[in-house]
What we know:
Elements: E1 9-14, H1 20-29, E2 42-44, E3 50-55, H2 57-66, E4 71-75, H3 76-82, E5 87-91, E6 97-104, E7 118-121, H4 124-138, E8 143-146, H5 153-156, E9 162-167, H6 171-175, E10 178-187, E11 189-193, H7 200-218, E12 219-227, H8 231-237, E13 245-248, E14 254-262, H9 266-275, E15 279-285, E16 302-303, E17 306-307
Parallel strand pairs: 1-3, 1-4, 7-8, 7-9
Antiparallel strand pairs: 2-3, 4-11, 5-11, 6-9, 6-10, 12-14, 12-15, 13-14, 16-17
Amino acid sequence: MSISVGDNMLFAVPKKGRLYNRVLSMLDAVGLVYRRANRLDIANCSNLPISLVFLPAKDIAYYVGEGQVDLGITGEDIIAEADVKVNSLLKLGIGKCRLCVQGPKGLYKKAEELAGKRIVTSFPKLAKDFFSKFDKKLETTTNIKYVSGSVEAAIGLGLADGIVDLVETGTTMEAAGLEVVEDVMKSETVLISNPKNKHPELVSSIYKRIQGYIVAKNQCMISYNIPKKSLKKALEITPGHESPTVTDLSDPAWCAVSALIKRKDAQYIFDRLETVGAKSILTFAIDNCRFPSDFQRSLSGRLNGVLIENKTPPKTP
């Protein structure tokens, strides 16, 4: 069985691994309706001219960079290792980790001490680039070998003196008796596009949908009643996005306020509102939203740590 994609925009997403379920939830939240047949890695959306292509995360950067697909979701570490030219449109706030030089606990204090020794990694380009400055300084050559997985086992098996590998929680590293010697780079999952893709309108639409999903996940609406004499103090606590909504109540001495707040700050804001006389304080979840591209002017410019780097939705020539 084969699937025809026609002139659809091709959107590459991870087919398995730690990001798979979170990405599927995101696709559902932004309104992409599709059915993936068993054993097939392509699925056409029924409501948009988009075909989802399910690929190993490590291949997505290559496919997007070479123009075989228009849009993709993968890690910044994978993009750097692939060394391809892509447009990084939006950080998604998931898959946060560090690529680190690691060694046996207590043996090395800095990465330079591993220069000229044996390094095993799944990121040979990044490892080589990182150690090149030490090699030049010490006039040596670090022996870098590639393995596709279980990198942390290489030192225990006598295959390496150190490794370059991803650290998310550190549990696997510690179980192997290793520790971080030095960071190579920080990474998280990003939305990327080919600089010359043929579907700029669809790319912009998906960008804005996912941006709205990220905002919705990290913000919520708060509603409360407040005596009008305390309204000014309350609005200093909940200034909202552009401005809060203020509505008169049947009691002329009171009004109702609703505003956008950061979800993580909700309990702190509850406490502060109570001190200025607010009552009937409620919060409401947001399923999705759409804000102007200058959203970074409010809420400290961050979506709970996810920076909107583009001032306008991306346009691809």
